[in-house]
Amino acid sequence: MVSEPRSCCAAPAPLHRPSPPTSTPVRRARGGGMIDRVELPAGEVMLGTKTPRIPGDGEGRRGPVAVAPFAMACTATTVAQFAAFVQDTGYVTEAERAGSSFVFHSHVAGAARVLGAPWGTEWWRLTEGANWRFPMGGESPGPLDHPVVHVAQADAMAFAQWAGGHLPSEAEWEHAARGGGTGEKTFPWGDDEPPEGGGAVCRIFEGRFPDPASDSGTVAADALRPNPIGLYNMCGNVWEWTRDTFSNEMGHDPGRALLKGGSFLCHDSYCHRYRIAARIGVPPGSTTAHQGFRLAFDA
Description:
The chain has helices at residues 79-89, 94-98, 153-163, 170-177; strands at 2-3, 37-40, 43-45, 65-67, 70-73, 100-104, 114-116, 118-119, 124-128, 207-208, 211-212, 239-248, 251-260, 279-282, 291-292, 296-298. By secondary structure, it is of the alpha+beta class. Helix content is 12%, strand content 21%.
């Protein structure tokens, strides 16, 4: 078993050395036309929150931050969109090169071989053959309309280059999640806590972590209720890579990249990281079944 104690939200450290982002040739600006997006005007973002739930994550107030006009993809990048990218470029992801990735314990495919579990977070299983094509391992492909997962930050950046976009900054991400407004909202839909499991507004954990009430994982990228400007699942479902380095009151950590949004494993009794201000830092080469991404585009 590998020793890398982390919370339910954070990815275990990768057990392989990530390849450089340029290791697979990528052609530019071929896939951006297939991605629906919402345009946002320039503005000032009150980054973070005045009432941090997890101060050690650095989620306290860090604004205002100016953002230029940009557009945000309506959904996280889907399996179908990523498949088009791979078909066009021949790209091979980090998890495919490694031959394994991390899957939540109750989701591992019955025929998949488990290679180990991280000490302290045994609900993660290092699963042979788990990657964007087979998110649970085994030979059962993931639904085409669900968010693509098991992608490292370099994989997401390669897709962004091909699609003519970029990974959003944290300021862009929070600006879009709040609907482009200036007020502070806890969630994309307002300040009311979602029901158990997320109901119609988000996909979060249901049960007593790490024992789920059901084995439901991700939902379709455009499922559930969008925020007021038409962006789906900005909180819950899958964590989303940004282009930023993680930082907190101790300063920047160049060894960790920043993710936003929470995932289907978040629960108010355990981590409560499905809020707009919530954030985690993980190694940029990490890959799991609850990490995906969405693109931003220059205006």
